[in-house]
Amino acid sequence: MWINRQKKLRNAGVLGLNERNVSYISRYNKRENFPLVDNKLKTKKAAAAVNLPVPELLGVIESPAQLKRLPALLNDQQSFVIKPARGSGGKGILVVNRREGEHFFKPSGALLTHGAIRHYVSNILSGVYSLGGKPDVALIETLVIGDQLLGKYSHEGLPDIRIIVFKGFPVMAMLRCPTSDSDGKANLHQGAVGVGLDITRGTALKAVQNDEIISHHPDTGVKFSDLAIPDWPQLLKLAGHCHDFTALGYLGCDIVLDKDRGPLILEVNARPGLFIQIASGIGLRPRLQTIENLVQKDWHVDERIDYVLSHFSVNPSK
Q1: CA distances from 166 to 161, 172, 235, 289 (A)
Q2: Which CATH number fits the domain 57-141, given the four candidates 3.40.91, 3.40.50, 2.60.40, 3.30.1490?
Q3: Extended strands (E) in 200-275
Q4: What is the domain partition of the chain in residue ranges?
Q5: Fewer Cβ atoms within 10 Å of its own Cβ: the N or the C terminal residue of the chain?
């Protein structure tokens, strides 16, 4: 039975974890390029250096001795985000969306004092949320105010768009929508909804929460079938540039839509998960193999996007 299931998945083009690790991550991602994307501060600086849009950095706390700078950094801020530079899976991200005097509030309405925030940052520095538990640094960024169009697909949080990029070609995408189960975070393992997107149009294919197909957002009640990401080719181009500045052959680019600034690169992942195949109802392997079989080398990013738009339609007849 197990063998038959594995054969069925392979025939459907589904990429497995071991194949992803051996055939794509190990083969196309050089080990020396990992530190750039495993550290959000390095990623942000590298993206900004080539004029790619990222959330504004308000400050960095690098050691316990610098905790005394925290009140000054937050003095004029009504909203902000604090995150570990080496965190993963959305762990350790603190979102403050309003302030009343010396009291800060999370999107859920929970109150935070200066002391609580200081303690939170101290935990980040000690490595509570970092990969391997190593000492970390805390980034303080402006809070991205989400695009109104996508806001209805989210509960107390910011939806983001994960795009898998192979050799500079965007090959698969999904929207990750926060829910009450995920505590307002776009974390699929905590109960966020993954909405597979047609890579050529940015429109919804299907939506999945906790491995079950759903038709409406569980909190807002909005239908996912009406979802369409605005300026979709621009997002694909932004994702394609992530290959250029990281030199990673296989990566996941996470993008958010700010209501004023438009699409911003949130982070880049050298080991993107495979849930995107479940959300899309499509296997990754055929698209990866199509790109591998291309003879032409050194495509310009615009040529890569044009190729994707003309070759990866879910329904070519449309």
Answers
A1: 16, 9, 15, 10
A2: 3.30.1490
A3: 204-209, 212-214, 250-258, 262-269
A4: 2-51+147-311, 57-141
A5: N
| Architecture of the domain made up of 2-51+147-311 | 2-Layer Sandwich (3.30)
Alpha helices (H) along the chain: 2-11, 17-19, 26-28, 34-38, 40-49, 70-74, 114-125, 148-151, 232-246, 275-280, 285-292, 301-311
Q: How many CB atoms lie within 10 A of CB 196?
A: 25
C-alpha–C-alpha distance, residues 183 and 186, integer Å: 9
